[in-house]
What does this fold into?
Amino acid sequence: MTAALEPARAGAVAGRATFAALAVRETRRFARNPVFLAAAGLTAYVLWSGKRGTVTDINGPNTVAAVFFGGFGMMAAFWLTGSMRASEPVVGVTPVTLPARTAALCAVAIVPFGCGCLTLLAFLHFHPIGDPVYGAFSPPARIAVLVGQIVVPSLGGPLLGVALGRWVRFPGAGFVLFLILAGWVTLVMALTLARPDSAPVAVLRLFAPFALFTLHTDVGVTAWRGSPWFFLGWQLALCAIAVLVALLRGAKGRLRSRIIRALGIVLAAAVILLLLAGTGGFTHAVTT
Amino acid sequence: MAGPVLRAGAWPAVAGLSGAAVAVGGCGAAFPAAATMLLPVCFALLAAAAALTLDEPASPVVDVTPTGPARRTTIRAVALLAPLAAGALVMLAAALRGLALPWPAAGLALAGNVLLGFAAACVARTRTAEPGAAAGTAVVLVLMTPILVPQVARWIRTFPAPGADGPSPDPVWWTVLAVCVAAIAVSAGDRGLPRWMTRFS
It folds into this structure.
């Protein structure tokens, strides 16, 4: 029995070593991508420039990481994934499977995720959690709001870029999706402004990878409907969906059926979390 | 000659992006509260569509034909009518819905967006046969940064939203138009074989 297990164990170790080498290589390529470097530089500048004035509304500074690390990161990851397409006839005959290479590409999301974590810490330094700009949310819920607006989009954007790069051949798909997502978030924001107390509109507002939870007006800060905690769960489910959809490309046999099964479970969880996010939290918009 | 050069363009991509822009801009016209964000997104999509008009998958064959780059660029510039018409349609719909925007400035922004996309593609076309994706991405990043990041909007604005703080976008677009015309003239005039092809010639 030991003799039978030895080759399998050796294969697994070799597979892990190959994955680690690939992941390091892809991560290095991602970190050197000019789009990602521009995103990191602009985020640092915006955070630094934001501390000079009095902030009455966090909806400007907190979108920065989502736009730069999430949106720009998505385009960089899409680019990275598509850049290997021309080499596919050569790379395709190596012993490493396409899902393994996709998993290595997904690992690059660690870089923007780390940057997102650092951005969150910097944000909390400049805008302490006790500030009235966060509205009626409790301190833990405020943290959940910020994690959902800064950290998770930084992780999810590049993962979405990898999934998009694996399935869509149109080279402009990255920026098209970025623009459509920006348009969608704006559109549902406009609907929320028109009907702030509506539960279906709250679900629609949260049916996005990024959502705002507060609005600053002359009368004060309005905290909208929706649970930041369940929204975090929905966002993480979206990240898992992106990874599974990316891995599905080129997966064969048992691996394919396992990915499809996992995808079904995560999709069901995502729907439940979205509904809970939309119906949880405040039952109506609260202005403080 | 004009017919075949035009037919070889990336029409599905240009039409698809222009269609997406009309959809986004239509939502902006339907929901005036979101118009100041959705119309710039629409214009950025049109700029990306303009960037795709110069894509030439058959570049190794086309670039050695007697039709010069200036003539080919002029013919392909006809394709810019698609994004311009789409933008005009969106602006007409928004005006009919009673949206209060400074329309001459919005028209200038539309022309500036489309020409910026085309100029970026012209410059990139001197290096690659299909510059659309890279030029489109670069243009979208440049156009969307002032829209999405308020700190940048303090310095530069690319869309004439009524009542918005910050500088007027008109000087920006007049400058962009002038630079783009110069860039198009220079890149179309000087374009010989793409650099990667000169290694084999």
